[in-house]
Amino acid sequence: MMKNNEQKPDFLFDKVNYKTLLIGIAVIVVGFILMSGGGSDNPKVWNDDVFNFRRIRIAPTVVLIGFGITIYSIFKKSK
Questions:
Q1: How far apart are the first and last CA of the chain?
Q2: Is it the case that residue 2 has pLDDT exceeding 60?
Q3: Mean pLDDT in residue range 20-40
Q4: How far apart are CA 41 and CA 21, in angstroms?
Q5: C-alpha distances in Å from residue 52, one per residue of 9, 47, 68
Q6: Could you give the CA distance from residue 49 to residue 5 in angstroms, rounded to a whole number?
């Protein structure tokens, strides 16, 4: 009796790598959401909300952390 040589598809990464990658992408999206807003309805009126702490410091830091998580998930060795 011959065995059927069915091969499972080889994925580039493990399941853990894909989960970490999705977490990194979600963190990047959260960072961009934190950066959004602060516009003014009237273009002749200046709005100082553009330069608040959340948009200048926190949001870019969150985006960079997300990129770090994503890069880590790509370079992490498979078992």
A1: 33
A2: no
A3: 92
A4: 37
A5: 49, 10, 24
A6: 63
